[in-house]
Write a structure and sequence with these properties.
Layout (H helix, E strand, L loop, with lengths): L1 H10 L11 H6 L1 H12 L10 H14 L7 E5 L7 H6 L3 E6 L2 H14 L4 E4 L11 E6 L9 H14 E13 H6 L3 E6 L1 H4 L6 E10 L4 E10 L3 E11 L1 H10 L4 E5 L13 E7 L1
Parallel strand pairs: 1-2, 1-4, 2-3, 4-5, 5-9
Antiparallel strand pairs: 5-11, 6-7, 7-8, 8-9, 10-11
């Protein structure tokens, strides 16, 4: 019984903010990556990516706002199955996509090949991405930036700055403090939690949501208990004010910024759950 108590105590233990990093487990697991790709490709839901209607609106705004031409070089960090890289390349831009998920990159490459589009894809953790290429625009969409620790975000913005051409820009979106205020701590346990998302084998899933008020961080901690193994997935999310986000950009060397409600260019709304930033080198 003591062993079970210790296991339950560990499941409900609150770690320090960003103490553990398990992105590889999310994006390289065969079963989970298949589930994620299915979410990506569902045009009616906002889970792994935006709804298709929003993506279309966003691409139109990006093309106009950043004066997209055949000479525009774009890098999409966390490109998934090409939901942005494909239409932007179709408009004539020179596009590069980087993503951790082998399954998503394979899908994106096949789509580009079938359409005759020359899109360069890299299947790797974008934290490790290096290139001699320089870009006019770097994108990180669907609040990917929020999942990174402070040290990872510092590395990422410094990398972006290095990879940009003079006058180049970064476009990314984040969760707001308004959204943080609405989150609450919670815990639950369910057989085959999230309808079998975590495994194709029977399992019990424990979900613990921890809220770190001072750091403005939320953790959704998933403990997946199967007959043969137990896994823990840490889904961290940093929440931002415009001031705290710009501070990180400024420390990386960026000189100017603009705020929007989203990556489709809607006017900034301080009460919205997300907002987007355009940082200029």
């Amino acid at each position: 019984m003591n062993n079970m108590f210790n296991q339950l105590d560990e499941i409900n233990r609150r770690p320090e903010p960003f103490q553990f990093y398990t992105a590889e487990d999310m994006w390289t697991d065969e079963h989970i990556s298949q589930q994620m790709l299915g979410y990506h490709l569902n045009p009616e839901i906002d889970v792994s990516s935006r709804r298709k209607a929003f993506i279309d609106q966003s691409v139109d705004w990006i093309a106009t706002h950043f004066n997209l031409t055949k000479d525009t070089r774009i890098a999409d960090f966390g490109c998934g199955p090409g939901l942005y890289t494909f239409p932007l390349a179709n408009l004539g831009a020179q596009v590069t996509g980087i993503d951790f998920s082998k399954r998503s990159i394979q899908y994106a490459r096949k789509l580009a090949e079938q359409s005759g589009l020359n899109i360069e894809y890299f299947n790797q953790n974008y934290l490790d991405f290096e290139s001699k290429e320089r870009y006019n625009l770097i994108m990180m969409i669907m609040c990917d930036y929020c999942a990174l620790s402070p040290s990872q975000r510092k590395l990422m913005l410094e990398k972006f700055y290095q990879l940009l051409l003079p006058g180049g820009e970064v476009l990314l979106d984040v969760y707001s403090l308004s959204a943080f205020d609405k989150r609450k701590e919670a815990s639950s346990c369910r057989k085959n939690l999230l309808d079998g998302f975590w495994s194709d084998q029977p399992y019990y899933g424990f979900q613990n949501t921890f809220k770190y008020e001072d750091a403005k961080v939320i953790l959704d901690k998933y403990t997946i208990v199967e007959e043969e193994r137990t896994r823990v997935i840490y889904n961290w999310l940093q929440y931002f004010s415009p001031k705290s986000l710009w501070k990180e950009f400024e420390e990386a060397g960026f000189s100017k910024y603009e705020l929007y409600q989203d990556v489709a260019g809607e006017p900034f709304d301080e009460n919205a759950s997300e907002f987007a930033i355009v940082g200029k080198k």
